[in-house]
What does this fold into?
Amino acid sequence: MISFIGAGPGDPELLTLKGKRLIDGADIIIYAGSLVNPEVLAGAKPGAVILNSALMDLDQVIEAMRIGEAEGRKVVRVHTGDPSVYGAHREQMDRLEQMGIEYEVVPGVSSFLATAAVLKKEYTLPDVSQTVILTRMEGRTPMPPKENLRDLASHNCTMIIFLSVGFMDEMSETLIGGGYRPDTPVAVVYKATWPDQRIIRGTLSDIADRVREAGIKKTALTVVGDFLGSEYSLSKLYDKTFTTEFRKGTEDA
Ligand code: SAH
It folds into this structure.
């Protein structure tokens, strides 16, 4: 049984207990060396073989899994954040399925969740935004035509943009062109939860300059929307007058 494991955003304590147990017991660890904090592997067995998938193509990754499995060794595949978000995960699962190799998936804390935590913000504020879009800019990997950033921007909801901090000028222009106010707040979080984490705040009109000045070129998320501001309605869930399944509100008393 191959275990795919979400390693979390960086801080090794943000690994699930299950993920840690599997990593610590593994004979072969294939990890995304460009983004996974090596500290996540600190508990690996002394004899464990550690392979960096940044240096491998899909065939090589699958071959390493196949051989390990055939030799009866425990193989884990460690992805950054959660494997379901820009993890190139599906193609590996499908290849294992074709070969009849069993696997399981252990989720992780995605960087977008760690980003809300370090910003101390909530993405879904009542009357501000109840929708979160996770997306990316069109870089070397094309975007499906119906998902261009300009169209997505028209909703003015909370938006989280992966893999795109190198294109800040184009990103902010497109978002404004798509309908966000130029003074919409933006935060760029570099290496959320790592020791060298940095947070750059601004608005759509000045964030590109601020990020350039900070020299941030990769491993950052851009989050956009009025959820970063200070105006919102209080939730109904904890409203004194609102009756819920668990609590009778004063209005109905
Ligand atoms: N599966 C990962 C995302 C992989 S794509 C997850 O769930 O987080 C890689 C991109 O994720 C990076 O280019 C960056 O945009 C973002 N990213 C990953 N780790 C990050 C971190 N600690 N802080 C900020 N952004 C991060």
Summary: The pocket of S-adenosyl-L-homocysteine is lined by residues 9-10, 35, 79-82, 85-87, 110-111, 114, 162-163, 189, 191-194, 219-221 (CB under 6 Å). The longest strand covers residues 185-190. The two ends are 56 Å apart (CA to CA). Residues 111-228 form a domain with the Methyltransferase, Cobalt-precorrin-4 Transmethylase; Domain 2 fold (CATH 3.30.950.10).
